[in-house]
Amino acid sequence: MRPSKCLLRAFTRLSPSRDTAFQSHHSRCINQNINNQDPYRITKLRNVVQFCTNRPSSVTTQVASEARNLSASRICTKDPTLDKIIAKNGLNVKPLTVERLEEDEKDEEVVNGDVRNIDKDGLENVRRKEIEEEAWRLLRQSVVTYCDSPVGTMAANDPTDTAPLNYDQVFVRDFVPSALAFLMKGEGEIVRNFLLYTLQLQSWEKTVDCYSPGQGLMPASFKVRTSPLEEDKFEEVLDPDFGESAIGRVAPVDSGLWWIILLRAYGKITGDYSLQERVDVQTGIKMIANLCLADGFDMFPTLLVTDGSCMIDRRMGIHGHPLEIQALFYSALRSSREMITINDSSKNLVRTINNRLSAISFHIRENYWVDKGKINEIYRYKTEEYSTDATNKFNIYPDQVSPWLMDWIPESHRCGFLVGNLQPAHMDFRFFTLGNLWSIISSLGTPRQNQAILNLIEEKWDDLIGHMPLKICFPALESSEWHIITGSDPKNTPWSYHNGGSWPTLLWQFTLACMKMGRPELAEKAVTLAEKRLQADRWPEYYDTRYGKFIGKKSRLYQTWTIAGFLTAKQLLQNPEMASSLFWEEDLELLETCVCVLTKSGRKSCSRAAAKSQILI
Ligand code: GLC
C-alpha cells in the first residue's frame, strides 16, 4: 500500500464574538499540528506540505486560548489509489460461522466445519479463544483512519448493510469501550489521536436553526469525509455532528462527559499524564466543565437536560434530571478535579467543582434512592406541603407508585436502586442500568447503596439480565404510556431498543461495577452468558423481548461497542489492577463539604446532618 500524502490546512477561529454568525474570516497560517508534542506523529507527518485557505462558511466560534489557536483543523490529501479510505482493513471479511447442533448432540458443535467438545459452561476454552480472536479482528476492522492515523472506530461495520445511516461514523460514547480495549492491550495511539481530534471539533462552528449552542460542546459523532481535489488528489475532512443532522436533533450532552472520563482513563492506563497536562487539553476540560456548571434557573444541583441527550438518544421521557447524565456528570467532575492543574486561574473552577460534587451526591443519595421501605414511605406521603422542612419535598403524589413497582421491589432492605429521574411532582421509578452502574463506579451512591444495587440485579437477574445482559431500562413503557411518552415511536415499542431492550455493550460497565464491589463472579456469569450468543448472532447492537431472547427488530449487526464492550469486560476481569484504576472510592472530603453552611440563606433547609446519620454511611 502506498502511503498517503497529507497536506495540512490550518485555520484559526478569529471571530471577535460568537454572535457574529455568518461572517467569514481570513485564516492565518500556522505551522503546527495537533500532535506537536508527540515525536512519533511528527515523524509520521514529516512529508507535510502546508498551505493556507479560508474556511468557506461561517466561522462563529471564538478561540478559547492561544494554545487552541495552535490546534489547527486539518484537511489532508490522499492518494486516490487508496480506495479503502475509511475502514482500515476492508469490510468483506467472512465472519467465523458457528452452527449449533440440537438436543442429543449437546456436547458437540461445529466451528467452520470442525466438530469440538464443549465444557460444562457450554463453551470450551478453544472456542472462547476463537470468539475473542474474532472480536479483536472485527474491532480492528472497524478502525477509522484520518490521514493514515487511527482516530476512532465506526459504530457498526456490517458489510451487508446497504443503509448504514450514521452508523458509519465514530460516536464519542461508542468509542469508549473500544478505547479501553485498546488501552488495556497497550495500544494507546488511537485513543490519544481520538482525544486530540475531538478536542479540535469542540470549537467547531455548530448551528441548528441559526442558533449556536454553548462553547465546549463535544459532537455526538464525526465522520471522515473524502472529496476529490485537483488531479489525483483527495482530501479528508473531519465532519462533526453536534445534533444538527442527528435524528430528532438531540443534544449530545454525554459526549463531553465521556471525553473527560476517557482522558482520565488514558492517563491511568498508559501512565502518560503529559496529554492531560497540555494547555489545549486543559482548556478543553475547562470548557466542558464551564458549560455544565453554568448557572441557570434550575434549583437542583443535578444537570438539567433535554430528552435523548445520552445513550438513549430518542424521546423516552428522560428530560429533566435523568440519572444517567447525573452519574456521568459526577464521574466527569471527579475526573476533572483530578486532572485540572491548580493555579490562580483555575482555583475558582476547582472550588466550584468540589461544591457541586458534594451537592450532587447529597441530592442523589437522599432523593433518588428507593428500597422497599422508602417506597412504602412515598406510598403514604402527605402532599401539598408548603415549608422548607416538608418531608415530600418534590410533592410526589403517591399514585405514582405503580403496581409493578410494589410487586417488583424485593422485600429485603439489602436491595434497592436509584430512580431514573426526579422533578417537581415527578419521580420516574424505572430502573435505568447505565445510571445505576455509573453511580456504583463513581461512588455517587453510598457504599451501602452501591452494594444494594448489585444485590437487586442479582435478585432480579431474569428481568435485568435474562438471556442477554443487560436491560437498558426496566420495565418497558406500554400502551398509552408508550403512545404519549415516546410519541408512538415504532423503534421504541415495548421491550425493544431503548424501551426495555437488552444492550450487550452495558456488559463492560457492569463488570467494572461488580469488580469495584468485590463481586467479579456476577460479572463472569453475565460474560459467559453473552459469550454463548454474541458471536453466533453476529454481535448485535441490542436484543428484544421481555427476557432479551431475540435479536432486536432493527438491530445493527457487527455493532462495534457490542464487540468492544465484550472484550473490555473480559480484559477487566483478567486485569483487576487496571480495573481498579478506572473506578472511584468514596471521598470523605466531599461528604464534609456542605455549601449550605457557608451561606446564611441555605442553613435552615440543610438536612445533611440528619441525612448523614441515616443514609450516607
Ligand atoms: C443509537 C444509540 C446510541 C448510539 C448510536 C450509535 O443511536 O441509541 O446510543 O451511540 O446508536 O451506535
Automatic annotation (TrEMBL):
InterPro entries: 6-hairpin_glycosidase_sf (IPR008928), 6hp_glycosidase-like_sf (IPR012341), Glyco_hydro_100 (IPR024746). This is Alkaline/neutral invertase. It is an enzyme of class 3 (hydrolase). It comes from the Eukaryota. It catalyses: Hydrolysis of terminal non-reducing beta-D-fructofuranoside residues in beta-D-fructofuranosides. The lineage of its organism: Eukaryota, Viridiplantae, Streptophyta, Embryophyta, Tracheophyta. PANTHER family: ALKALINE_NEUTRAL INVERTASE A, CHLOROPLASTIC-RELATED, PTHR31916. Invertase that cleaves sucrose into glucose and fructose. Belongs to the glycosyl hydrolase 100 family. It comes from Brassica rapa subsp. trilocularis. Keywords: Carbohydrate metabolism, Glycosidase, Hydrolase. SUPFAM superfamilies: Six-hairpin glycosidases (SSF48208). The keyword Hydrolase applies. Its EC number is 3.2.1.26. Signal peptide: none annotated.
